[in-house]
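Quick one: structure tokens for this chain, please?
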Amino acid sequence: MARQSYLFTSESVSEGHPDKVSDRISDEVVDAFYRESAAAKLDPWAVRAACETLCTTNRVVIAGEYSNTPKSVTVQMIQDLARKAIKDIGYEQDGFHWANANIEVLLHGQSADIAQGVDAKQPTNKEEGAGDQGIMFGYACRETPELMPAPLYYSHKILHDLAIARKAGKGDVGLLGPDSKSQVTVRYENGKPVGVTAIVVSHQHLVQDWSSAKVREVIEPYVRKALPEGWITNDTAWHINPTGAFYIGGPDGDCGLTGRKIIVDTYGGAAPHGGGAFSGKDPTKVDRSAAYASRYLAKNVVAAGIADRCTIQLAYAIGVARPLSIYVDTHGTGKVDEAKIEKALAECMNLTPRGIRTHLDLNKPIYARTSAYGHFGRTPDAEGGFSWEKTDLADAIKKAV
């Protein structure tokens, strides 16, 4: 039997963290391909993009592959997009400034060997194969209204709320820098989250002589507001800028790379991860699209009342359309046999790459918004972003089991 009383910790990083700056730029490139293809009336199904970004002191290197790219997507456009992203995040410091950074673009055409595997018609169902092999996991639980693990959800919320306040620029909170990290340790009793035993926040500040005590004074009201009432007690340990000054931040302080925060992006360690990053990839790459689909299915299983917790694994082979396997684990909380759920999911959703892209409407410029504060537990928006967070399949799954 799973433990019922324990402590569990998850972390988050802000949009100004060096790795997240890289994720944002990579996803801005993917969005540009979709946006410009639509403007040129080109087939969005043909878009292929795989973009990696490195950020360091006043330098950004953007590399990767593409195909079927509109002529309007130029090196200059990509450089401009990167500068706008850096400016929006808030970097105007000597060591990393949106206007002064040297931005190098090294994108090139996609390998024909990869293209033939993805684009070839499959004998099984006459459509595109997966863009790579791999395993993808989805997870949902009843710990928050968004059906996310509480430690990660509140770690994200602390930093997101602080970022909104920082950008509004009112009072001392406007003197915080873009780079920050958080960590929340949640206490569980009888399997449910009931309180916080430790809070860690390291936040960049733009006033050089600010102490850790000053940073705590500025951010503590936002931390308290982000967490459920009563979760913070006199016994909760606070670690705010525990090493002292955090004046030099962002890529000037630490090199950033796309795809290094995969646990922050998903479930904070509360569920397995297949190993593939999301940002910078178009949805033919099942690392991204099938991870979104598995979260969508897990969330709908929980929303349907079939289980209180659900982990789903999908597996794919490059060039093969249909998933090799579908695995469901309801962690002893299920009201229906897991084999029946697996069968029902295959009936309720086409889990080929084309089926996923169609069902979740993924051929759109919706990816830059996913690059910080998690890909899951977010609110679906009017433009089609976070479509995998909808619970519109719950009734169909319930009927199918």
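The longest strand covers residues 176-189.
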